[in-house]
Amino acid sequence: MPKRHSALAHAAYHDLLRSLRDEGLRDLRGTPTLVQRNGRGYWYDSFRVGSEVRKHYLGEDRPELTARMVALRDDRAPAQQRRRDRARLVRLLRAEGFLGLDPTNGSLMAALAGAGVFRLGGTVVGTHAFRLYEGELNLRLSLEQTAQTDDLDIASFERLSLALEDAAAPPVQQVLADFDFAPAPSLQPGRTWRWRQTSGNALVEFLTPAFGEEGLRDLPALGVQAQALHHLNYLIADPIPAAVAYRGGVLVQVPRPERFAIHKLIVADRRRAEDRMKSAKDRAQAAYLIEALVEDRPDDLAEALEDARARGPRWRERIEASLSRMPETAALLTALI
């Protein structure tokens, strides 16, 4: 069975996450404004700069977000004290064995968060997301599982990026340039979705769901292009916030763990022929999360599996192809139905 952190560490993580989420709703420069677009509501901090009204995106309209804005309206805790409290929580988490990020990845993640990448819909996917389930699911990951990748994958919906009247500041391309990243060549001159660090091996990739043919799409809110991929719409639907235990904490968002696990079954079969090592890694991550979720969140996992299987025969074929190589995981999922 998966090993767990202490109850103290789990509580400290959620305290850190709550503080980071609340920070984005404090000290509004103007008036919270609800804007309706295509049947969805979006909250903005609307304020005037000279004769111009500017909008700072706060989040999609949900009862939980509204309640937090009301609760924080009268909270006057000093900013310096809030930062100290978060730093103390991060130290506690590290002492309890929580994973951290090295200075390069940590400072890059913090800079992207500061520019608004995750506030504007960016979702961390891939191995970095898997590592961040440590706090959400209270998992103590093993040395083998914590091998850090130099690749940072960020996904976002094209339609959300188009709908938001806000943009990253400073621009994402400037943030990447500050960390010595340069655009990697692509088949379309002047357009790229991958940025490689010139002084190291780090790679940042931007992705978006494909509704139709795969290819490059614009993400206006982030000011970058992204590679459109099938099955990604399933993965990043309804993402959740996550806290990175770096310095005073960094707020990002990741896919729901049950969707991440089932998606890994799909991509493991999709790239089994071209990259067997990555396919095996995908299956290992899926197996570990499924074992944890069967214990903690079986209903969520069953719903995610049912959703994926209902999306068509090709989805079902890929899931079953991976599970045919994972008999113990297949038995766990069969018992859910």
Which secondary structure elements does this structure contain, and how are they paired or packed?
Layout lengths: L6 H17 L7 E7 L2 E10 L2 E9 L2 H10 L6 H17 L7 H13 L7 E3 L1 H10 L14 E5 L2 H6 L8 H7 L2 E3 L10 E4 L5 E7 L5 E5 L4 E6 L2 H4 L4 E5 L5 E5 L2 H14 L5 H21 L1 H12 L3 H11 L3 H10 L1
Parallel strand pairs: 5-8, 8-10
Antiparallel strand pairs: 1-2, 2-3, 4-5, 6-7, 7-8, 9-10, 11-12
Helix pairs in contact: 1-3, 9-10, 9-11, 9-12, 10-11, 10-13
Summarize the entry for a quick read:
This protein has 337 residues and is of the alpha+beta class. It has helices spanning 7-23, 63-72, 79-95, 103-115, 127-136, 158-163, 172-178, 232-235, 257-270, 276-296, 298-309, 313-323, 327-336; strands spanning 31-37, 40-49, 52-60, 123-125, 151-155, 181-183, 194-197, 203-209, 215-219, 224-229, 240-244, 250-254.
Highlighted features:
337 residues, 2 domains, seven-stranded mixed sheet, three-stranded antiparallel sheet, 12 strands, NTP_transf_8, NTP_transf_8_dom, GSU2403 family nucleotidyltransferase fold protein, DUF6788
